[in-house]
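Record filed below.
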Amino acid sequence: MVDNERTLVTIAVLGGTGKEGSGLAMRWALHGYRVIIGSRDASKAEARAAELNAQLGGEYLTGMDNLAAAQQANLVVVSVPYQAHHDTLVSVREHLTGKIVIDVTVPLQPPQVRTVHIPESKAAALEAQALLGDSARVVSAFQNVSSEKMSDAQIEVQCDVLVTGDDVSAKEEVIKLVEAAGMRGFDAGPLANAVAAEALTPVLLYMNKKYGKKGLGIRITGLES
């Protein structure tokens, strides 16, 4: 994607004050995209954007409430705790028509965050698509990328990203964003396959604790041969 194409894309990261959302926002902003940090509290979003701008050494990011962020963006990222997932989507639903919605949410059930929890809907991304309807192009991605690795925009993230969705062109756009954030993205099939990607997150969290490491991830092997 050339520079002028990036400037035409505005990305809203709802839940962008958190570690995962902030990390993605920084990486995309440094890659030339216009990025908005979204939060339920506009002042919190503005403060986080200012903090990240100071860290990056420039005016890269802006902050606003989730509704305004979703309204101004043409691509929306949902990076919120599962407990806030439904209400966040409902609050911005009217501004997601026709847009790509990247769902990063994992249905973790604290305090048992290292045990796989399959919700009734099977996956958070499937919940999002059902709630938003066919007018939104939901793509699932980034569930298996550690926020520990994302927090420093200069660190190489050695983790591959599984991208699932029912809209082929939407997945292609998301894979470009994966690459812009410094990772490899792979088309992992229809949105139903988000069940597997989401379920890998608590497995990785378990392994982090078991082996005393932070930021374990996944790699796809064999494609180079």
DSSP finds nine helices and eight strands in the chain. The chain has one domain: 3-211. The beta strands are 10-14, 34-39, 61-65, 75-78, 100-103, 137-140, 160-165, 184-187.
